[in-house]
Amino acid sequence: LIGYTMHTVTKYLRAFGIVGVISLSAFVSSARAITVFACEPEWAALTRILLPEARIHVATHAGQDPHHIEARPALIAQMRSADLAVCTGAGLEVGWLATLIQRSGNARVKEVFYAADYVTLIGSQPNAIATPWTGDIHAEGNPHLHMDPRNLLRVASALSKRLGEQLPSDKAAIATRQAMFEARWRILIERWKERALPLAKQQVVAQHTALSYLWNWLDMQQIADLEPKPGLAPTPVHLQGLLETLRHKPLLAVLISSYQDARPARWLIKQLTTTGSMPIPLLVLPATVAVDADEKGLVQWFDGILNELLEALK
Fold this sequence. Notes:
The protein is an alpha/beta fold.
């Protein structure tokens, strides 16, 4: 499915300083399996790649807004059993993660692994103060970093080290899996980037800033947001203003995430569609991978997003 040969993988492994024959024992864990609480499915997928034997609880799914999760008893019980919590950070889980940890009484997860600590975030607002009228304010920067596949490389490297610290007897095996993932993922990033060349400079309208990292990676432009402020629902006044602004703009598509209401986007498209013209495509993209996804699921997710965008070009 993915299309990389063992020769190519071996070449990349040597480039990373991993030489010699990788024996089967490198992939066999001698330590006990640990339990990981993943706040989002993308981090569960990375954990499965690095430590296939781990027991993983996933707090959210693609049909939910990860900003707003209820600290349900089931999640508290899952956190109580965890040896490690792997989350996004940058304020994405600020409304519920601390409550889960506090109510679980689990001292093992107080040092949460935050993916945002290991990448360069965009859109920081260091002096911003959140109020009920400002919407979702993330002073550190945009937390939706998983939309750029290059960030997954950086997070996987850091997570590999963290898992190695938790499981010293598995450290070498985890590092080997991480290096092999990096080799495969770099090849895929090159292929995706080449496929996406026709998308450069294309203009889109989207809801929220959840896709900002995707636009940066693909050199695309989000020229308007359906939300008046991040995290606040689209309003008639705001949509009417967008209509006037966008009426003569060449748009590739209007995009929303799978957990967002499609009605505002459909209204805007209907108003922008003139008699005899083709309607602007509405793309509903999954915000993340399936809760049980592994590397294959991550690949299919990025493939699917690119396929949707390229199809819109037609």
